[in-house]
Amino acid sequence: MKGSLIQISRRVIRLPNILNGRLYFSHPSASSQPPNNKLFVAGLSWSVDEKSLNDAFSSFGQVTEVRIMYDKETGRSRGFGFVHFSKDDEASCAKDAMDGKAFLGRPLRVSFALEKVRGAPVVVPRLTGIGNGEINKTR
Known about the structure:
- One of its GO terms (molecular function) is mRNA binding.
- Helix content is about 15%, strand content about 35%.
- The chain has 2 helices and 12 strands, in the order βββββαββαβββββ.
- A 4-stranded antiparallel sheet has the order 6-7-5-10, covered by helices on one side.
- Strand 6 and strand 7 form a beta hairpin.
């Protein structure tokens, strides 16, 4: 099954893709996402802090803010964060250069950050039975 988009009353809904028996929801490609000055950085080592992440990205332009997301209960890094640049083109250069590069022993996954929609929760259903020809929704 190939993923596709459906537009319902001006709202775009992304349908899932199934590849090799695994279900995934694809994100818009870099070409369909407008560049912005905020990058989403995933795959961070637990030893990464804001200063080291700032140092890694500051060679591409003026970094205005760095935020690493932490677990509220344990205080440990959740493995992702955000890097804000002063200009869109600096963020674009940083994304292209740093995506897939090893940083403190782990490859980074860098993309343009999506705007958070307030008041509209994003719900991704859990699915079971993938790979045996059937998809069953669970809670």
